[in-house]
């Protein structure tokens, strides 16, 4: 089994309710995605988790002696290693946005 690196992201949301009467409420809020503004370097199903260059070791060719049925020694020319194995080449989006910090401010009035 191969274990890849973990990925983590921190989002923060702050909200405050202001009650003007029994029926009128204003909610002021801010939501921050990727608050530490770090890239999310992790393989996903397309680029590594389910295939791709992150998890692909490379390829090799096995040769069999036709008369005895035994495996022949590996020739270095028959081995094609993947130089990108285990390397995180790209960063991925978080919640449909790029890997940059985003801040959303909002005001909601309910009556």
Q: Can you describe what's shown?
A:
The protein has 111 residues and is mostly beta strands. Helix content is 0%, strand content 29%. It folds into two domains: 9-39 and 92-111, no CATH class; 41-90, no CATH class. It has a three-stranded antiparallel sheet, with no helix packed on it. The protein is rod-shaped, with a radius of gyration of 26 Å. The mean pLDDT is 81.
List the quaternary state of the chains.
single chain
Largest sheet: 3 strands, antiparallel
Count of strand segments: 5
User: H/E element string?
Assistant: EEEEE
What structural class should be given to the helix and strand makeup? mainly beta
Instruction: Calculate the mean pLDDT score and round it.
Output: 81
State the strand order across the main sheet. Answer: 1-2-5
Query: Spans of 5+ residues with little confidence (pLDDT < 50)?
Result: none
Please give a handful of descriptors for the protein shown.
2 domains; mainly beta; 111 residues; two-stranded antiparallel sheet; three-stranded antiparallel beta sheet
Ordered list of secondary-structure elements with their pairings:
Elements lengths: L11 E8 L5 E9 L24 E3 L18 E3 L20 E9 L1
